UniProtKB/TrEMBL annotation:
GO MF, any single term: UDP-glucuronate decarboxylase activity
Known catalytic reactions: UDP-alpha-D-glucuronate + H(+) = UDP-alpha-D-xylose + CO2
Pathway per the UniProt entry: Nucleotide-sugar biosynthesis; UDP-alpha-D-xylose biosynthesis; UDP-alpha-D-xylose from UDP-alpha-D-glucuronate: step 1/1
Name of the featured protein: UDP-glucuronate decarboxylase
Documented EC number(s): 4.1.1.35
Lineage: Eukaryota, Sar, Alveolata, Dinophyceae, Suessiales
Topological category with respect to the lipid bilayer: Single-pass type II membrane protein
Family membership: Belongs to the NAD(P)-dependent epimerase/dehydratase family. UDP-glucuronic acid decarboxylase subfamily.
Endpoints of the signal sequence: none
Cell compartments where the protein resides: Cytoplasm; Golgi apparatus, Golgi stack membrane
Length: 330
């Protein structure tokens, strides 16, 4: 592809779970990719296979500080996403969402780049309306332990729309619902990774509360496709657009599916429900279907199988590193 036609795309949070899959997809699409990450929850291993690609570049940088680069498009994904990680340093989480958004919007304004924000279903909080359409304004506890994430993301959306109205920026806002797949961290506390790792290790499966709360899980390749379609949609499609899989299930059902799929002898144990844990969540994806021609294509069973395979390999490597002589000893 001639150099002039190759889009230069910045992915913040590009060494994370979603970001690394997005970088991969953009390289496949023929883009030049600049991955920016401070490695708070991102891992070098997620992008190691991309480092030798001629149009991939990695920059270690914290988005709460200004960044001066020349790009055509920006996907702003930098932000820890799992409750234990975003609550570890809540002030930094808010800074990452808010100062990070200001810096990336300032960058987009200077270089006239299109910019997409990875927002979240958490802007709906513990929703009183079900399923959640984009018009729903949400029910967030502004002083609870999840607020650093929820309110940070809500403020980032506000900033995107103010830069759009005030500076005519070309913006996109995606509200991402629970997404799973290979490269989730085994220890980041999210439900899919927790359950799979527990099942593979034969440990108890920790269901919080009575397990009747619901979530709707989207496989990572579907999600990435939704983000790329949103970025490439006509300029008037600013969003916010829900991107997620509407297949809803209780957490207890998920636990059972993981046990069945792994053939594990693990048993379910109940643990206290964290404060402000949303009781139900399901995206209304009418807008994504009509505006982006997008809907998820990967069935939960298929997605879980490849995620289980990923964690099986990861745990085998960890075991081999912890007991290098195990094979010899046998
Ligand atoms: P992740 O934690 O794997 O990725 C986040 C990445 O951002 C990491 O690589 C981390 O090191 C990096 N990062 C954090 N703070 C940074 C900073 N100040 N400067 C530079 N880099 C920084 O999480 P993920 O699941 O890949 O989520 C990616 C984005 O999608 C996040 O913005 C998240 O809020 C959003 N999102 C994800 C989900 C989901 O289910 N995975 C749901 C809703 C929204
Ligand atoms: N910024 C950046 N890279 C750029 C341009 C701006 O990181 O290429 C940051 C800079 O920190 C600035 C912020 O984005 O403060 C907002 O930029 P804007 O132009 O909107 O406002 P300013 O604060 O410069 O008046
Ligand atoms: N959850 C659980 N056991 C775990 C981890 C999470 O029962 O080991 C529950 C959690 O309380 C929540 C749901 O699973 O109701 C999804 O949690 P996750 O942290 O993955 O995402 P979020 O709450 O941000 O949607």
């Amino acid at each position: 592809m001639p150099v002039a036609l190759r889009k230069r795309v910045l992915v913040t949070g590009g060494a994370g779970f979603l970001g690394s899959h997005l970088c991969e997809r953009l390289l496949t699409d023929g883009c030049e990719v600049l991955c920016v990450d401070n490695f708070f929850t991102g891992r070098r291993e997620n992008i190691a296979h991309l480092m030798s690609a001629p149009y991939f570049e990695m920059l270690r940088h914290d988005v709460t500080f200004p960044l001066y680069v020349e790009v055509d498009e920006i996907y702003n994904l930098a932000c820890p996403a799992s409750p234990i990680h975003y609550q570890f340093d809540p002030v930094q989480t808010t800074k990452t969402s808010v100062h990070g958004a200001i810096n990336m919007l300032g960058l987009a304004k200077r270089v006239k780049a299109k910019i997409l924000q990875a927002s979240t279903s958490e802007v709906y909080g513990d929703p009183q309306l079900h399923p959640q359409p984009e018009s729903y304004r949400g029910s967030v506890n502004p002083v609870g332990p999840r607020a650093c994430y929820d309110e940070g993301k809500r403020c980032a959306e506000t900033l995107f729309f103010d830069y759009y109205r005030q500076h005519n920026l070309n913006i996109r806002v995606a509200r991402i619902f629970n997404t799973y797949g290979p490269r989730m961290l085994p220890n980041d506390g999210r439900v899919v990774s927790n359950f799979i790792v527990q099942a593979l290790k034969g440990e108890n499966i920790t269901v919080y509360g009575d397990g009747s709360q619901t979530r709707s899980f989207c496989y990572v390749s579907d999600l990435v496709d939704g983000l790329v379609r949103l970025m490439n949609a006509p300029d008037e499609v600013t969003g916010p657009v829900n991107i997620g899989n509407p297949r809803e299930m209780t957490i207890l059902e998920l636990a059972q599916r993981v046990i069945d799929l792994t053939g594990s002898s693990s048993e379910v144990v109940l643990r206290p429900l964290p404060q402000d844990d949303p009781l139900q969540r399901q995206p209304d994806i009418t807008l994504a279907k009509s505006a982006l021609g997008w809907k998820p294509t990967i069935e939960l069973e298929t997605g879980l199988e490849s995620t289980v395979a990923y964690f099986r390999d990861l745990l085998a490597v960890e075991l081999a590193e912890a007991h290098p002589m195990a094979e010899v000893a046998e």
